[in-house]
Each structure stands twice: as C-alpha cells, then as structure tokens.
Amino acid sequence: MSGGWNTIESDAGVFTYLIEKLGVRDVQFEELMTLEPEELRRLGKIYGVIFLFKYPTGETRSDTPKDGSFDHDAANNLFFAAQTIQNACGTQALLSVLLNKDGEVDIGKELREFKEFTGEFPPEFRGETLSNSDVIREVHNSFARSSPFIDETQRTATEDDDVYHFIAYTSINNKLYELDGLQPAPISHGDCTAEQFPDKVIPVLQRRIGRYPATEIRFNLLACVQDLRIRAREIGDMEALEEQEDKRNAWLWENALRRHNFVGFVGELMKGVVKAKLAQGGGAYDKWVEEAKGKTKKRMEDRKKQGIASDGID
Predict the structure, then answer these.
(1) What pTM did the predictor assign?
(2) Looking at the annotation, which residues are catalytic?
(3) Spatial contact of 146 and 23, defined as CB atoms under 8 Å apart
(4) Which residues contact 100 (CB under 8 A, 6 or more apart)?
(5) Quick count: other Cβ atoms within 10 Å of Cβ 269?
C-alpha cells in the first residue's frame, strides 16, 4: 500500500470486523435508519455513534463551533487526536469512541498499548502517531474496496470533489462530546450520562443536518454498541441470535468481496465467450455482434422515448 491510507466505506460490517481485527471484543456497529432516540435505545448498551457527512471543502476554521463549545482542557484529559492524513478519518472516528471507553470495553492489547503510548501527547502528536501506526493502517487498508484503476494513496481532493468526513459522538465523564480530528479541540454539547445519550445526541445530529439544504440526503449514522449476540444469549432469544449470526456471515462474505477486483475475471469470461462464438464460425460471431448492436440501439431509442438523456455512446 506504499504507506498510504485507503478509503473505507461507512458500513456496519466493515467497521465491526475492522475493530475485531484490531483486537476489540464484544462490540459491533449497527446502521441507524432514523433519527429517533428509541431506535438507539433498542440496541442496548451504546458506546457512541459515528456520523458521516459531506464536508464543505471551502469552509474555514472558526474560533467557535457552530454548535456546542470547544473544551480545550478535555483535549488532554481524554483521547482526542488531530487528523493529519486524508482517508484515515473513519478509523480515527471509531477509535475516538473506543479508546474513550477503555475499561467499559475490552479494546485489546494493540489499542491499549497505543493509547498508553500516546497518553501524554498533545492531539497533533497523537494524530501523527496514529497515521504512522503500521498495525492500524494495515488493518484499515484491508477493508478498503479493491480498485485496479485508482491509486487511493496518491489521490488528493479538490474543491470540486465531494469529500466525506467521519466524526464521533460519545458520552465521556457525563458530558456529550463531538470528536472531530479536523477541529482544534473536542466540542462539548453539555451534560450527558450514558443513559441520557440517545435523547441528547439526536437533537445535536438533527441541528447539524439542518444546516444543509433540504435536498442533501447523503448522511450515514452508525451506532457503536455491545455485541447484540450477548443480549440475545442472556435472554434466551434464539431467533434474534440466529438473525445476528446470519448477519455476521453476510458481512464476512461482503468484506471478502471488497478485497477482490473482478476485472481479470470478467476479461477472461469475455475471452471465453468470444472464443466460443468464433468456434461456431465467423457467421455466428457476426450475427452475435449485430444482435448486440441492435439491442443497444433499441435501448437508446426506448430511453429517448421516455425522455431520458443518452450517455453519449454511439
């Protein structure tokens, strides 16, 4: 990977198995479909949420946040790292939740040693240390979608690009904090116990989304919660347990697919199809090509009739 960080998706299966590979135990992520406190509460023990949104690339830093207030003292009293590299913000956001829940969550040997090593660092040095962690970077990159066409490590965003950013919200020391590595300090949103978290965080998220045009719908919210299989076993809900096991198997399959690109496979498949047509004789091959052209032409005519613009391919 040439030492770079690749883009990962905001996906519950990706995040769940990413932290498991880092050594975290009994934690998973769940995608939230509504901004309702009850949807959060039904997930049981909640450690925090990860919010993905379109980042306004032309926005400049301010001495005061648009919501809440900077808590500069907290920057040194809890785990808060400045974001120093592109594409790492997804993993940085989930670590912002988990490393502040050490003791409540088994974060594993690697992350505990990382937290202890960076404990006395200022946020900038923590961010640099995170960016240079071979272990965390390699795990992060193992969940990036494979692409034979784009070298994600070399790409930098411009103001014309759609840039997305991950941030974390969690309750620490009975306060609701917004942890965004692009900000100079954690942002406090007031008093908040772990039990109050669903009711306190939802209005903050609603206000943030409200700053965007009504047409902007590209948001994603993942809850960081205790492994839902634990509660299912505790209450003897075998149906829920089976549902969670099936979901994890599906996540494993999807993550396996992410690690592979199928361009070579498709290329070989097309070669085989063409070879088979040629073996049937030149006439069969020419007929096949003409049939394909005819179908393409018909699709374009149908699209025009429906008022759909063509893609410019003749």
Answers:
(1) 0.78
(2) 89, 165
(3) no
(4) 48, 78, 79, 170, 172, 179
(5) 11
